[in-house]
Amino acid sequence: MKVFDGIKGVSVLGSTGSIGRNTLEVIRKHPQRFKVISLAAGRNIRLLKEQIDEFRPAFVSVADKETALELKKAVSAPVEIGVGIEGATLAATYEGVDITLSAISGAAGLVPTMAAVKAGIDIALANKETLVLAGSLVMEEAAKRGVKILPVDSEHSAVFQSLSGHRSEDVKRIILTASGGPFLNSPIERLETVTREEALKHPKWNMGEKISIDSATLINKGLEVIEARWLFDVPPEKISVIIHPQSIVHSMVEYKDSSIVAQMSCPDMKGPIAYALAYPERIESGTPPLNLFNLKLDFIEPDFKRFPCLGLAFDALKSGGTTPTVLNAADEVAVGMFLKKRLHFTGIYKIIAEVMSKYSPREITSIEDVLEADRWARETALSLINESSPGLKA
Amino acid sequence: MKVFDGIKGVSVLGSTGSIGRNTLEVIRKHPQRFKVISLAAGRNIRLLKEQIDEFRPAFVSVADKETALELKKAVSAPVEIGVGIEGATLAATYEGVDITLSAISGAAGLVPTMAAVKAGIDIALANKETLVLAGSLVMEEAAKRGVKILPVDSEHSAVFQSLSGHRSEDVKRIILTASGGPFLNSPIERLETVTREEALKHPKWNMGEKISIDSATLINKGLEVIEARWLFDVPPEKISVIIHPQSIVHSMVEYKDSSIVAQMSCPDMKGPIAYALAYPERIESGTPPLNLFNLKLDFIEPDFKRFPCLGLAFDALKSGGTTPTVLNAADEVAVGMFLKKRLHFTGIYKIIAEVMSKYSPREITSIEDVLEADRWARETALSLINESSPGLKA
């Protein structure tokens, strides 16, 4: 329900992360257009307090009770505080929210996002796991309730903009671009011994840790392929990936007359965020204009030997059902272990592949099926890492 | 009026030219979709006869009586034959025509195209002079009658595809790409002495003689700027030109959130032709798919010293009224003289600039105003060339 006339009420899930901070930058530029109703964050109290002081939300949620108590002491503004998934869900569906920007990292984003869809609230979707895990359920529910799922990933925003105004039956394929990450040109044999710091150093985008590692393995692009399959209702064989190191062309759509429509901009998340928040209008986003002069745009075929996780994602999509959930859960565990220096970089692929090989896919009939597959894959990945041969461990 | 149920009746004006031949190639691929009702050509009887034998139009028109008599002897199929502008106009508006592809070269395309608009027939527009000369009149008439003006120029087709589905009030600027022609990198002092053959050798597009020279001076891009101003109803200051030697990105639209939407394909006219003919559907065009791998895309600021005709076109657009007509007419005369080796390449600019400097712009209230300005500019250009100093003559 709308409480502010003419102003969109916004819930920001993951407000202290990279997407969340960019979202609040966009909102700051347009106080006549947007009002922050609620925020959900993790444990970054210092930044969350600043956000509360500036945007005066009615409700915020944090990771746990301890953080909530600490926050209560820190803030003077009157704000209701919730915790955990229940808190995030309440934030996503709070009274007055017209659009929920879903940018909690990982599988944890699914439940609050689905709750917002069920409440008839439009979604600006940065949490790709929502569709990776439960694409069919979420899109069905959204269609039933007339809820818009507006992409915030730069790639999906580009596809969305390149499909706009064209007939979906004329699409030959969607081409997602990938920067190729920090190891595009490293010798393959070096990948086993790359450090946490090397893997985190993304050449084009400044992002959170998990997504930076996922960009280095290219599994991030694989998750985006799965996301695109549901968001745009296209079969897997109509989705390709192409390496584009400059990250200027954010994605493309090829039509059956061999015409390609593409979207370009400086690599800056404020553009896609602003487009999703204000859709169908465009507003000043804060993304600087692209200087076309002396631009160099390269496109390279992805090497599935260098980036075997990308192949796993296509396999998971083809296998269907709960398999993408298993892929994603195993990846979250493996990346976590890599970040803790308990797994080699190349061990990420090995763990996911092994977890997937042990799994028998199931149909998805409810969120419960998804959450169960998620639990199973996490446990299996963890025990594989704990029991694994020294070759996997860093 | 439609005579073939479910099939679009097509009139092809300029059927033996480059665009005309490409159009018939597209139509050949889709006999269940298109039927050629009429053709208009010049003096290429051999090719026109072949086209009549294959496509069996009800009516054709040629340049003059002599050609008509010759054609009558050559063809056995029953076909009505007309001549001159009246013949082309009859072709454009013949019974059963649903869409007229207007690809007669130069100012001669205006009258038949306008007649088709007045008859309520959709236009696939390759003849840019129609809008350069009488943009306000033609677009007004088209709006009044619900006639679609669908661009066939690759640049305008690209803009059309990049605007589709987006709000026109969000457009920051239209960016027309130009290959830069054969003299993009020649020393400027060499331009005075370039030969007819050098100027005709376009690096990317295989086109007619007039448009090839216009691409070498870049006045073609200037005419396209004027065309875009009317076609998309954007003020001149929102249209830019950028050199893109590979001719892969056919044009772009920049929006106010710094997002750029672009259209790409192999340089091949069948794509835009098919899009215009079948709009809003896309059909197999015969344009080969673009191979994105190892593509190099460069964008360079245009040098108005090297290409002063481009500046003249912007001046003409700003001056308004009948000035673009004068620019175009002087260019047609000057290019004709260059092709006859009676004018230096750099003389083309000098003649147009001098004709324009002698002209006092007038408002356009009817096609008559346009035709009068056209006549005046042709006479003035001719006499300037005939009386000119030896420096201008080749």
* CATH-derived topology of the domain at 8-151 in chain A: Rossmann fold
| Helix-and-strand structural type of chain A | alpha/beta
Runs of chain A in which pLDDT lies below 50 for 5 or more consecutive residues are none
Helix proportion of chain A: 40-55%
Instruction: Compute the separation of the termini of chain A in Å.
Output: 51 Å
Q: So how many helices of chain A?
A: 15
Listing every helix as H and every strand as E from the N terminus to the C terminus, the arrangement of chain A reads: EHEHEHEHEHEHEHEHHHEEEHHHHH
Q: Beta-sheet strand percentage of chain A? A: 5-15%
Instruction: Compute the number of strand runs of chain A.
Output: 11
Major sheet of chain A: 7 strands, parallel
CATH architecture of the domain at 8-151 in chain A: 3-Layer(aba) Sandwich
Main interface by residue count: A-B, 47 and 47 residues
Global morphology of chain A: globular
Rg calc of chain A: 20 Å
CATH superfamily grouping of the domain at 8-151 in chain A? NAD(P)-binding Rossmann-like Domain
Oligomerization state: homodimer
What's the overall average pLDDT of chain A, rounded? 94
CATH class category of the domain at 8-151 in chain A = Alpha Beta
Structure description:
The structure is a homodimer of 394-residue chains. Chain A has 394 residues and is of the alpha/beta class. Chain A contains 15 helices and eleven strands. Chain A has a domain at 8-151: NAD(P)-binding Rossmann-like Domain (Rossmann fold), CATH 3.40.50.720. The first copy, chain A, has helices spanning 18-29, 45-55, 65-74, 84-92, 110-118, 129-145, 154-163, 196-200, 209-217, 219-231, 270-278, 308-319, 323-339, 345-357, 367-387, and strands spanning 8-13, 34-40, 59-62, 80-83, 99-102, 122-125, 149-151, 171-178, 239-243, 249-255, 260-264. In chain A, the strands form two sheets. The first copy, chain A, has a seven-stranded parallel beta sheet, sandwiched between helices. In chain A, strands 9-8-10-11 form a four-stranded mixed beta sheet, with helices on one face. In chain A, strand 1, helix 1 and strand 2 (34-40) form a beta-alpha-beta unit. The first copy, chain A, is globular and about 55 Å long. Chain A starts with 7 loop residues before the first strand and ends in a 7-residue tail after the last helix. At the A-B interface, helix 7, strand 10, strand 11 and helix 11 of A face helix 7, strand 10, strand 11 and helix 11 of B.
